[in-house]
Amino acid sequence: MYTWHSQGSVPISILMEDIELPVPSLVGVDWFIIALYFLILIGFGVWLGRGQRDSRDYFLGGRDLPWWGVALSILATETSALTFIGVPAMAYAGDLGFMQIVLGYAVGRVLLAFFMVQYYFKNEIYSPYALIGQAFGPSAQKIGALFFLFAGTLGAGVRVYVTCIPLQLLLGWSVSSSILFFVVLSLVYTWFGGIKSVVWTDSIQFVLLFAGGVFVFLYIPSLIEGGWSAAFDQVNKAGKLSWLNFDFSFTEPYNFWMGIIGAVVFVFFTHGIDQLVAQRVLACRSVNDGRKALLFCGVSILPMMLLFLVIGLLLWAFYQNTLIPIDMPQNSTGKTQIDYIFPIFMLAETPAGIRGLLFVGIFAAAMSSVSSALSALASVSTMDLGLLVKIQDESSKLKWSRHATIIWGVVLIVVAYLCREVESVMNAAFSLVGLTSGALLGGVVLSLLIKRGPAWPVVLGMIASLFGMIWINSLKLIYWPWYTLIGFSFMLIVSLPLLRLVKRQ
């Protein structure tokens, strides 16, 4: 018996209930490839950790990393397992509308490259939140750091959780065991090598991620009778090739205005203010190198996201005439977790050896996001909160920086476990980040415009923005690409009049 789950008039999945099909599992060559990957990755990361002298080396790589390595690391971080698993699931369940958001991503990166990067290199700073501190004092900087740690931990927790999906399918491991496995592996090379290990291992992992995506893109049509033409004819008739929607809406995904306005402002945060990306730009050798890294990311994100969206469409076409051999799980609300569809395909339909390489691609995407989160959280918690200020010995600073990395590893394990009931990993991750993104963007923008001022108007504005966004999120009416713009508006509405009032007095 087949059970059809539909979205509107378009079926999005077929689940088997009474029929059991033999599902291939990983064989010896697959496990060898996966084990070799883990050994090489960890060994490489540990080797890169040689010569670490101080926290500057640990968190900024001595500001001596080439722009192309930084660019690949940014791409690996921002794509992560959310792209490899979540983006195909979005197209599988819908259409190409997410490309409108991606267009905004590209525009935002280009604008940041020319208008933001220069401020990173004016002083010796470890994060954008130091800019808030330079303008409004250390208390404002610490509040900004706490805001990042709050939302950054929640968003990273979702990214860590999504790494559980392939391990659950492969080994039948529990959620907690899967989370522990990935975090510990990522922690090993991040602890040893800091941002340098993260950047170079990310670069390798991005190549693996992209290669896996290209293979699947070319492979799926070979399994469909009639190949490419039949597959695209099928998805076209179902209306799944549509991507442009000019109807303005705050509530419905996705539309052109949501992309060109909401997503652009969102990128101002993710690539200008969020430490996950900003830390890499700060590790570049110069302003020009930082700009090159962001421009490369702006150009590359369009074909990258389109690749994985089209994979989702091809998966949909394939499973219109083929049974899904593994039941996709449901969360506590009874909704199907569609994010499992791509890993299921890789496990059930790809040949031995290739199957191992594809799962390496998922593992690569997963570990790049975990290691990036660990490095960013450790950097902000130690440097921006001033935990190392009283420590003068550089070797001691390095030691405590590594201790902070371990602590955040434990925190991510806990948070990821609590995120196991999410229906869509993409929407959950971006919504959580959106709680504080507007406040942090507003704080940095005010620091660049006003230069000097008291802390309390800025802090009050950030708190108002946070509570406003928690309320907005609770309503479930406004879609996440608008969150940063709305939070930014809350921040300015509260802070600007207060700063002007103080200036007059």
Furnish the topology, listing elements before pairings.
Blueprint: E1 2-7, E2 10-16, H1 28-48, H2 55-60, H3 67-93, H4 99-115, H5 117-120, H6 129-136, H7 138-162, H8 164-171, H9 175-223, H10 227-237, H11 256-270, H12 275-282, H13 287-318, H14 341-349, H15 354-384, H16 394-418, H17 425-450, H18 455-475, H19 483-504
Antiparallel strand pairs: 1-2
Helix pairs in contact: 1-9, 1-15, 3-9, 3-12, 3-13, 3-15, 4-11, 4-13, 6-7, 6-17, 7-15, 7-16, 7-17, 7-18, 8-9, 9-13, 9-15, 9-16, 10-13, 11-17, 15-16, 17-18, 17-19, 18-19
Keywords:
disordered N terminus, 505 residues, mainly alpha, Sodium/glucose cotransporter, two-stranded antiparallel sheet
Descriptive account of the structure:
By secondary structure, the protein is mainly α. The protein has a single domain (29-328, 335-421), classed as Sodium/glucose cotransporter (Up-down Bundle). Helices cover 72% and strands 3% of the residues. The chain has 19 helices and two strands. It has helices at 28-48, 55-60, 67-93, 99-115, 117-120, 129-136, 138-162, 164-171, 175-223, 227-237, 256-270, 275-282, 287-318, 341-349, 354-384, 394-418, 425-450, 455-475, 483-504; strands spanning 2-7, 10-16. The protein has a two-stranded antiparallel ribbon with strand order 1-2. Strand 1 and strand 2 form a beta hairpin. Helix 3 packs across helix 15 (354-384), helix 7 (138-162) packs parallel to helix 18 (455-475) and helix 17 packs parallel to helix 19. The longest helix is centred in the middle third of the chain and has 49 residues, at 175-223. The protein is globular. The N and C termini lie far apart (75 Å). The model is unreliable at 1-22 (pLDDT under 50).
